[in-house]
Amino acid sequence: MKNYLIIALFVLLSAQAFSQQNMFTVSGGYSFATIEDTDKKTTGWRINGLYELNPYQGMFAHGFSFGYVSLSASEGTGSQTVDTK
Q1: Phi, psi (degrees; rounded to nearest 5) at 39
Q2: Coil, helix or strand for 14?
Q3: Which of 10, 50, 66, 85 has most Cβ atoms within 10 angstroms of its Cβ?
Q4: Contact 45, 28 (CB under 8 A)
Q5: Contact 33/42 with Cβ under 8 angstroms?
Q6: Which residues of 17-40 are buried (b: 16+ CB within 10 A; e: fewer)?
Q7: Among the ranges 4-13, 43-52, 72-81, which has the highest mean pLDDT value?
Q8: Phi-psi sector, 19: left (phi>0), alpha (psi -120 to 50), beta
Q9: Domain edges within the chain
Q10: What's the number of CA atoms in the CB half-sphere (13 Å) around residue 6?
Q11: DSSP state letter for 80
Q12: Can you say whether residue 5 is alpha, beta or left, with left for phi > 0 and alpha for psi between -120 and 50 degrees?
């Protein structure tokens, strides 16, 4: 009888472990934008990360995200060059 209880306990604990879905996603790519109040077009790269926890496969997921964007542009000729980052 103890063996059946222990097996049932392991099955129930594993069912709860499978019911939570944790996800970690990393993405990145090429970024471009126009600086406000100017006509400068900037280009660069970006990287994003996302961690999600969805307990019991419910309607709501909890988590956090982070990101970094690096944009830069140069405009002008000769010694009159303006660098924007």
Answers
A1: -105, 15
A2: helix
A3: 50
A4: yes
A5: yes
A6: eeeeeeeeeeeeeeeeeeeeeeee
A7: 43-52
A8: alpha
A9: 20-76
A10: 3
A11: G
A12: alpha
66 pLDDT tier (thresholds 50, 70, 90) = very high
Structure token digits, residue 17: 């472990």
The answer to whether the CB of 42 falls within 8 A of the CB of 74 is: no
Task: Quote the tokens at residue 41.
Answer: 């077009």
SS3 45: strand
* Residue with the two structure tokens 């009159």: 80
Task: Give residue-wise pLDDT tens across range 17-65.
Answer: 555 577 888 888 988 888 777 778 888 998 999 888 887 777 888 899 9
pLDDT over 70 (residue 15): no
The model's confidence at residue 85, banded by pLDDT at 50, 70 and 90, is confident
